[in-house]
Amino acid sequence: MLDFAKGVARTRAGTGEAWVSVCSAHPDVLEASLRLARDRNAGLIIEATSNQVNQFGGYTGMTPADFIADVRRIADRVGCDPALIAFGGDHLGPQAWRNEPAESAMAKAEDMIRAYVRAGFTKIHLDCSEGCAGEPGQVGDDLAADRAAQLAAVAEAEGDGTISYVIGTEVPPPGGARNDEEGIIPTSPAAAATTLDITRRAFEARGLHAAWSRVRWLVVQPGVEFAPAHVHAFDPGQPDVLSQALQGVDGIAFEAHSTDYQQPEVFGALALRNFAVLKVGPALTFAVREALYALSHIDGWMTGAPHLADLMENLMTTAPGYWQGHYHGTPAEQRLLRHFGYADRIRYYWTRPEAKEAVAALCARIDGTLAVETLMAQYIRPAAQGRVSALMATGLPLSKAVIAAYIEAALLPYLELRT
Asked: I need a surface site. Which of 39, 146, 195, 416 has the fewest CB within 10 A?
């Protein structure tokens, strides 16, 4: 089991160490991540979000217990030591039911918290920042903190006194900015200190002093973000003013969301600025899409099969709910973003039966046909080719080796900060 208190202490001591949190339920992402954790002997946090996994199944169809069981099966298959893995619940609050009145949305959020804790999640992000029916889109600090404390009380009653908590929320919303014109405003030290103070008082008002002692992370916006067609790059040369908020505060560090697509040197800079957890998700499924599209190009030349993008375009335009509010512009611009946008909203469609069947058939054709070296070189990144060969030498088929190599390339810079 990962020792969160020690990890926070190491980050706060200026070691430059941090944990990566993989926020994905995609089986290829999980398998590649666990294989890397095994090979690096590095701790790995794997997280599920409230929309993705909840007591009703979420968009993955998995309950919290299902999710943990699935990850553990994959870990066992790749030989990853369970002691290297911790499970986190991300953005656990009323968001999934924000169209309902607050009373019913919070009741469902309480049930979700119970399900997460019972399943074995030990890192719980209490995020009650979004309003419910009839409320503003973002509620004030006092109400958000009171609701977070309400959910913490549920977790404490259900758990064994070992839950570690994350408080606060990032801006813009989870999953990346929805508009490339949105400015990214880093959290000010004063705002971070206010969140800590208001939430501490909300916990104490409910008698949750022990729970407050296990609040390990505060989510803040350091100035990293990605939008559909643009990455807001973090400047490591800017002065670190945000850490002022942690002066006199023991046992708590920062957590950074939406660190996807940043340059590798950014991750070390964030760790040195007291960010003990760096979260990544869409960049990993973006890598899956890149690999699958490359394989589909190869498949087209070898077998004449239509490109996988044709099927995915049909799925996304037939059921546009997962991307429509995120991608804007002309029809041609939206089409490009559906497939190649940094927000990677296509990730919601890989679980569709038609997509799963098509991917399985594609991989079977690739693995069942003699690969032409020059054709592979045309579509597989040169930097990935050596890793593909190495993974195949361990017994992975060509298709899985290509997918894993692309995911590893996105994840490896985070694991250089291993704790």
From this structure: 39
